[in-house]
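Worked example 3. Consider a protein that binds magnesium ion.
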Amino acid sequence: MRRLKVKKLRKQQRLSESQEIKLLEQWIDARKPDPGTNPLAIPPPLPTAPVGRMADGVFTPYAGCKLFRQLPISRKTKEGLAPKYMEMSEIQRASLPHSLCGRDILGAAKTGSGKTLAFIIPVVEKLYRARWCPEDGVGSIIISPTKELAGQLFEELKIIGKNHTLSAGLLIGGRKDVDAEKDRVNALNILICTPGRLLQHMNETLNFDCSHLQVLVLDEADRMLDKKFKGELDAIISQLPKRRQTLLFSATQTKSVKDLARLSLKDPEYISVHSESITATPERLKQVAMEVPLDQKLNVLWSFIKSHLRSKMIVFLSTCKQVKFVYEAFKKLRPGIPLKCLHGNMKQNTRMAIYLDFCETTSVLFSTDVASRGLDFPAVDWVIQVDCPEDVAAYIHRVGRTARFASGGNSVLFLSPSEREMLTKLQSAEPKIPIQLRKVKSEKMEQISGSLASVLVKYPEMQQLAKRAFITYVRSINHQKDKEVFDVSKLPLEEYSASLGLPMKPSISSKTQKMKNKKETELKKKQKSEAEDEIQYSDEFKSDVEDGGMKAVAVKMIRGNEENYNVHEEEDNFLVPKKSSVELDKSELTHFPTRILKKKKLKINVHRPVGTRLKYDDDGNEVAPLAAFAIMDSADAVLEPEKVKQRYEKLREDMKQRDKEDKVLQRQRLRDKRTKDKMKLKRWREEEEEFDEDDSGNNAESDVGRNTMMRNSKISFESESDDERKVKKTKGFDTDAISLAEQEALALKLLSSMHYS
Ligand code: ADP
Ligand code: MG
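Given these inputs, the predicted complex is written out as structure tokens:
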């Protein structure tokens, strides 16, 4: 009887679903906007105006409307959107009328403007209207450049799709359960993935079938189409059907016809909602640049953090080793705010745990560009770019981690004197980037190089980290394409090395050194010829530098933003915490090893003669066998065995000495501990005796007292180190379980939610 009732109910649901779908299709078809029109230019209907089919059979227009509920989308999606999402953002208003009627989209809108919903809604709706079910297999693929961003998109999809019966999966690299994924991937309707993992499934999963794909989405499309992902993306696209809808979104969109040709777009709608906007960055974002010599960057960073202890901050550095070093060193100096770090060399579980943790806590996150794109960390107050971004687009994405949606935010860019050209590039970008130059108040600056040197002495492993940070930084500068901004020969390397606390400048591999030497010789030649010219023009040149240059530039910028900024006032208070402008109204990339690279790594040639194996350093440069170890100290040392011997002799001596000191220290510590324990025991006995004396038959009460005391004593002996606590916390986030268990839960939930609302 009950089964019959359920059957009947389901039939009714199916009927009403098919009626809704029919109606939606008629509505979409009847009122589709003309290709090339901008829905934002159409006056919106009143919020109280009727929606859908009117009594006379005519459908209301949906291009130009402001509310999600005025769109021809399913009731299930509307219920997923409400109450969090009621009114559409500009990119959503501009793109949804086109994407809902099946057009290809090339969408550009500022960071934090709501691009995610602009592609998730059409994906869900298309599959819903096609009555897609698990047996139909993969209906949509959404590709993201990073795992964290993919995870975030998956969360958003779960919100929007919670009432639908579609299944979805998160396929990202670094997870061990790839075999479990292989069993299920064909039953998933929407795949949110990173390119490497998708390609792995395409190549390894039996019967993996995406020949019926309906919608392909590339989030951070310009990044996905650049050379880093070229090989993987081309391989993926070659396996997808040509007849499909393609949606591309980013804050900095590619205009390269060649790139777009790879995707075979059909008459795409070019939607750039902020192209007429005066600025390329969110309006509520206050941006400043400061000229900071390379060897002062850590001092300024430290002073900045110390004066903003209540702010949530992301600090961008260029290499994993720098992130690790600055994080570890600052942690040891205890600034008074929790510190975290995120970079591509971390394990997937740890990365995801840190990402989630940073979403929730006011802390400082040191990161490489792995976090620069797409990530929607709530309420970030400051983005600090210690190392210069590689180009204007990278700058826009980094600062885009703050001032998201309706919130405000602040950013500061440290530029060493040789990187000043970047400021000109940012200012002349189209649309503009309203960034103003400020001076660092030197009297408010704390010098930490000495403390860093002590940290390096106290923790020998920090020395290696500092050296690697130094070497990888110099190499990263050397690898940069824009030579107007990045010039190794202009870097004060001795001073920089000292600023990291290193006793002497580490040697850089001969290739980089040669380049630096060559540049230095060229520079000397140039300076010599300029000096000859200078005799005639010296006065003119001087006045140009003092009055023109950066100062004039700053004035230009201030004029553009007169209402918002007062340069002198803010200059004075720069290192002083200001009232956070972030309204707490609501709660991205390094180079992951591609599958191809991984495969190569796994191929071990057992017949290769001993000692001929090639090694690669952090930046992918070939180094001689064992030189990778030697390079830490000095590349030259490999060639001079006598030097190596001496160095090891010295190291051995140092170690012996340190060993001795450690032993003395350890003995002292043990002695102190024993004394402390004895004292405690004595105190406890005395109190115990007092209890026994006081015990007037009220056992329960005395037990409570004793238990409390036992508990107290336990607490005082259980001292957890920071690291232990971190490991425990990390263990708490079972990120493998996050995606798989949640996928399962989602799929089950979706499959079981058959009631029609
Ligand atoms: P983008 O991809 O453009 O950088 P996101 O899609 O990550 O931006 O959205 C940024 C933030 O804005 C997210 O926290 C999201 O929940 C919120 N958001 C997006 N659309 C809306 C909307 N229509 N109403 C309210 N909040 C929104
Ligand atoms: Mg985004």
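Take a moment to read the result before moving on. The longest helix spans residues 641-694. The chain has five domains: 65-272, 285-499, 536-610, 624-656, 701-757.
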